[in-house]
Amino acid sequence: MTDLRLAPIAERADPPATLPPLTAGGLSWRPATAADAADLLALRNAVAVADDAPYRETEAEVADLFAASWRDFSTDSLLGYDEANVLRAYALADTRPGDTGTVRAFLWGAVHPERRGEGIGREVLAWLVGRGRQLLAASGKDVPARLVTYAEDDAPGSQHRMFEHAGFEARRFYSDLRRDLEVSVPDIRLGEGLRLVPWSPELDEPTRLAHNDAFRDHWGSEPQDTETWTSGRSEFAPAWSGLVLDTAPDVERLLGADDTDAETAASLRAGAPLVVGYQLASRYDSDFDVRGYRFGYTDALGVRRAYRGRRIAPALLSAAMRAFAADGMRYAVLDVDTANPTGAAGLYASLGYEKVSGSRMYSIEL
């Protein structure tokens, strides 16, 4: 619902008529294309090495960026090359078509460690903020708006200062957690009518509906359409992913509930399977050497709001831990919003997860 106290998004976003020039460092700038995936990968990983980030990307992960139809790289990206035609900096502004409660512009960018201190990063960020404001204004969605970027907690202090100087504020904090799989994993039984099954393609759409329901009350979450839900899965591990089904749902009660969303209601009327919880995992082999151990990663975990309190999440996590361990992983790893409203941090602690590192979200609220 539109907040009548808000000015129109076209005014609040305050989009610049023209974007600021990028002149620092004498780089040559042009929009990115899919053919630049290898260059972009080399740059992003060079930054990750210099900043001691706990990850390294693969070319498939970078190629995923270009596969999404909603991204327009011709207008929303820039690559900065030096005289030797080596990529030294990049910028990418990204909006999501399904945003309804808050329209967001995600701002991504980096400068090669060898070219820091020349003012390139400040100009990249200024360009990103300007382009982000233009995208928000062009959305036509008169709802709250947000410019978003992220940083590891232990990233160089200059990065945090640059964001703060540009008007960003650290608003959300995330903990990277791990759980030793050499410690016994609890056997958690589900209640009557609930059945844990492997992820399968035919259950992916019911899982998307479960996700949108599970995250409706999470700060910063917006509904995902089919394309955004299925994008970015180059490292997805179906064999490590599980779902919980209600095999005999009370359809009449669910259809009569005020908070059953329209898509779920249509699915129930059509007799589709009802996914009530899910754990989707990925295998990031390129990170094993960086972290110094093999691990399975839980990318997404959620339980439908009407099914909370029935031990569904612990059952899914325990099943994932057993799957990880069976494939020779030493740890189970995941990331959690420290202000998660469902008490997730307490759940993870009860299952033996411990904090390893952290990151934060910076934003400008409009």
From TrEMBL:
InterPro entries linked: Acyl_CoA_acyltransferase, GNAT_dom
Pfam families, per the entry: Acetyltransf_1
Entry keywords, A to Z: Transferase
Superkingdom classification of source: Bacteria
Keyword presence, Transferase: yes
Keyword Transferase: yes
UniProt domain N-acetyltransferase: residue ranges: 27-192, 227-366
PROSITE patterns in UniProt: GNAT
A GO term, aspect molecular function: acyltransferase activity, transferring groups other than amino-acyl groups
UniProt name for this protein: GCN5-related protein N-acetyltransferase
Species name: Beutenbergia cavernae (strain ATCC BAA-8 / DSM 12333 / CCUG 43141 / JCM 11478 / NBRC 16432 / NCIMB 13614 / HKI 0122)
Lineage of the organism: Bacteria, Bacillati, Actinomycetota, Actinomycetes, Micrococcales
